[in-house]
Write a structure and sequence with these properties.
mainly alpha, 2 strands, two-stranded antiparallel sheet, about 130 residues, 6 helices, single chain
C-alpha cells in the first residue's frame, strides 16, 4: 500500500478534478445568466471567486465529513491530534494554503524542514490518518 503522503497527493489531485467539475457547472449557468455580451465581466471576478470556492469546498468537506472527496477515495480522514473531529476554525486555517498551488508547496516544504507534517497541520494541531479499517 502507498504511503499516507502519496495517498494525500493523489487525493489532492482528485479534489482538483472535483472542484474543476463543480466550477465548470457553475460557470455554465453563470454564462447562461449574464449572456454572451457580458462574459468579460464574469472573467474579471473569477480570480477572486475561484480561490474562495476552493477554500469553501475543503473546509465544508473536512469539517462535516472529516474528508474531502479525494481523501475519502484514498481512505484518509482529517482529525484533531486528540482524535476528535476538527473545528470550523481548524478547518479554515489548515486549508488556507490550498487556495493556490505555491502556498501549499511552501506549507509542505517548511513542515519537512521542521521535521513535521505540513506547517498548517502543526499550527492547527490536526493530522491526516488512515481510515482504511
Amino acid at each position: 500500500m502507498a504511503s499516507i503522503f502519496t495517498r494525500r497527493v493523489v487525493a489532492y489531485v482528485l479534489d482538483f478534478f472535483v472542484v474543476s467539475a463543480f466550477l465548470w457547472i457553475v460557470s455554465y449557468f453563470l454564462f447562461a445568466v449574464v449572456g454572451a455580451k457580458n462574459v468579460y465581466q464574469v472573467y474579471q471576478y473569477l480570480p477572486f471567486v475561484v480561490p474562495v470556492l476552493i477554500l469553501v469546498y475543503f473546509v465544508v468537506c473536512e469539517k462535516l465529513f472529516a474528508a474531502s472527496v479525494g481523501k475519502a477515495m484514498m481512505y484518509l480522514e482529517v482529525r484533531s491530534r486528540n482524535g476528535a473531529r476538527i473545528s470550523w476554525l481548524q478547518a479554515i486555517v489548515r486549508n488556507l494554503t490550498k487556495m493556490f498551488w505555491i502556498p501549499i508547496i511552501f506549507d509542505w516544504l517548511i513542515g519537512k524542514f521542521l521535521r513535521t507534517d505540513r506547517l498548517f497541520n502543526n499550527i492547527t494541531r490536526t493530522t491526516v490518518v488512515d481510515d482504511h479499517f
